[in-house]
Structure formats: C-alpha cells, structure tokens
Amino acid sequence: MKLQFLGTAAAEGIPALFCECDTCKEAMRRGGKNLRTRSQAIVDDCLLIDFPADTYAHYVAYRFPMEKITSCIITHSHLDHLYAPEICVRKKGFSHLKDQKPLTFFADRSSYDMLNEEIETCRVPEETAKTVLISPYVPFETEGYTITAIRASHDPKSTPVVYLIEKEGKVMFYVNDTSDFDEEGWTYLAQYGKKIDLVSYDCTEANSHIEYVGHMCLERCVAMREKMKSLGLVDDNTIGVLNHFSHNGDSVLYEEFSEIAAKEGFLVSYDGMIINF
Q1: Contacts of 186 (CB under 8 A, 6+ apart)
Q2: What would the DSSP string read from start to end of 73-94?
C-alpha cells in the first residue's frame, strides 16, 4: 500500500494566512517541509481522503491522476477537509473527461448533506459526482478497499469520523481531527482482530500539553498508541506518523519536532511525503 500526504496542516495552514506569529514567520523563512497546506491524502494514487480547497494546489504540486480518481472518503464537514463548491468544475464544459465516471464521495451525515446541497445547487449530474451515506462501524467497499469509519471525538455537528482502510492484507488507520475515542469506538477496535500496519495520528498541537477535546498532541498520540498496543492492534513494527499540524503547537516546525517525535518512535509527515508499506 502507498500513502501520500498531500497536505499536513490544520485549518489555518502553516504559515497561517493572516498570521504574524514567530512560528509562521520562521516557517515562511525556512520554507521546504515547514510549509504546510490543509490536510488531504491519497492511497495508491486512487483513493482520495478529504477534499479541501487546497485540492487543486495539491494536484498541481504532486501530479496525482485526479482525472481518474472516482472515490473520495470524507472525514468531516469542516472547511479544511471539505470544500464542496469545487465539485462543479468536474461538470462537462469545465472539464473534458474521456471516460466520464462519477466521483463518488463517501461521507457521514453532515458532509453528505453539504455535498448533496452543492450537487443540487450546481445541477451536477450523477455521472459527474454522487454521494454515499456511510455509517460508523459498518464496513463498505470501494476500489478494492474495505473501509470502516470510526466515530471521532471532534465537533459533533460535523459528524466526524476516522478510517480503517484495508486491502490485500494491509491495514492503515487514518486518525485525523479527534482526541481519544469514546467507549463505542474502543469497543469496536478491541474486537477488530487485525494488526494495523500504519497509523496516521492527529498531532495538531505538536509538543504542547492540551486539555480540550477535539485534537491531539504528542503525549496524547503516545497514549493512544499504547492503548492500541494493549489491544494487539499495533506493535513495534507498526509505522506511526504524526500529521495535521497547527501553528499554535509547541515546537511545531519540522526540524525541531522531527527530533522530538523520533525519540518516541514517530515519523513526522510533510506535504508530499510518500510511505510505501
């Protein structure tokens, strides 16, 4: 399985659009892996995860085959993960596709409703884009993957989920925009019965200590990993990658945080990063 991180920031991006903080200034000065767009990823160049406004920038930068992609799973309806108006440019006239197959969005209620509203408003035909309503803990299939949504601990109005993604004996767990799972989530995971090969953890607050519900930091990622170890879901061979960073996080610049994270056995994602596993 191949995972490519297209964007690795939280809602503001790094540097944030309207910010003059020291972190944003230094990220702009250094450039490279310190410049982070809003979160999005792609699996095996065919399964898209999230659809932010930065999708076009990611397509231009990394040249993945956007015109051939027909499946996109949505984590939740916040702007940095779903920019529904972009769907209209897939219509005939805006785009010219040799093989017109619909781009199917798999989403829980809030994102599903948002997508359908845009499809109806822009009169997007079904052969261009369509939606499938998913339910947490009920596996579905697309592109040869078996995918299961786990309810995330995040803004409930956005009906947030994270995803277990399986194919040909490989399993990845894409864990963005959440803090610790609720009892139902851990109960499902305890009964899952499969080893996970890669976990992408929300680490919005980097090396900060936080108390609020909705995101994670390094110490929370360590705690989640240890709990998954106790359930037999991960082991020392499981790849752990930290992702989804805010400029508000302590020591969040790539060079500094990579050293801190490495001591705990984690990789730190950056825009364009590819992991084959």
Answers
A1: 227, 231
A2: E----STTTB-GGGGGGGSBTT
- Cα separation, 270 vs 36, in Å, equals 7
Q: Annotate 25-51 with b (16+ C-beta within 10 A) or e (fewer).
A: eebeeeeebbbbbbbbbbbeebbbbbb
Q: Which amino acid is at 160?
A: P
Do residues 23 and 247 make contact, with C-beta atoms less than 8 angstroms apart? yes
d(CA 211, CA 103): 39
**How many whole angstroms separate alpha carbon 9 and alpha carbon 81?**
11
At 235-272, the pLDDT tens digits run: 999 999 999 999 999 999 999 999 999 999 999 999 99
Residue 155 has pLDDT above 90, yes or no: yes
**How confident is the model over 156-162, as a mean pLDDT?**
98
β-partners of residue 171 are: 166
**pLDDT tens, residue by residue, 106-137:** 999 999 999 999 999 999 999 999 999 999 99
Give the right CATH number for 2-276 from 3.40.50.300, 3.30.70.1140, 1.20.1530.20, 3.60.15.10: 3.60.15.10
Beta-carbon contacts of 210 under 8 Å, excluding residues fewer than 6 positions away, are 216, 217, 220
Sheet with 40-43, edge to edge strand ranges: 129-133, 103-107, 71-73, 47-49, 40-43, 2-7, 274-276
Average pLDDT, the chain: 97
- Here the tokens at position 182 are 């609720």
CA separation for the pair 253, 34 (Å, rounded)? 6
What pLDDT score does 99 carry?
84
CB hemisphere CA count around 56 (13 angstroms): 8
Q: Report cis status (omega within 30 of 0) of the bond before 102.
A: no
